[in-house]
Amino acid sequence: MKAKSKAQQKAAGAALSAKRGNTDKSDLEGASKDMYASMSEAELEELASTPHDDLPDEV
Known about the structure:
The chain has helices spanning 6-19, 30-38, 41-48. Helices cover 53% and strands 0% of the residues.
């Protein structure tokens, strides 16, 4: 699945960073916190790797 907005792509990147242990999960807020809890690392990587050049800021 590809990200539908820059905000979604950014939130997935933050959740992925916490999943990998690069950032503290207590630093997550909102959508990234929900993504951390409900998605696998592979799913987060797919969303976070979506090119954001043609994405809207928010949906």
